[in-house]
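Q: Hi! First time doing this. I have a protein sequence and I read that you can turn it into a structure. Is that right? Here it is:
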Amino acid sequence: MKKILFTAVFGLAFGAAQAANIVDTAKSAGTFNTLVTAVEAAGLTETLKGPGPFTVFAPTDAAFAKVPKAKLDALLKDKAALAKVLTYHVVPGKVMAADVKPGAVKTVEGANLTVTASSGKVMVDKANVVKTDIAADNGVIHVIDSVVMPK
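A: Yes, that's right. Below is the predicted 3D structure, encoded as structure tokens:
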């Protein structure tokens, strides 16, 4: 019931004639506050509001809470390192869940994410994909349960 209610509310919030961009979509969801703060601190807001298209594997606030506080605080203060981590979560193009294929996927950061699928579960590196296909007018968001770090 909770999932149905969330889906209904989410659908109403984003079912307007024009979807919001990735940043505004993330803000509206209410579960990506740390991600939005990090995107702003890294100076990536305008890029992710731009034409794209982008596919973002977006860690939730709970995912960011798994990162030790000292490490997260240091990362938020280091714009270059933060941008590297955040762009590792972004793939060029709009890749819907049905189009995701297991294997290496080149990120905007330059390194490859590893996508695996087993028993109906999809993972990106060591993060589980917990929700897919949140549409934005300049791409799509897939929700992950951990922050992934470039090698």
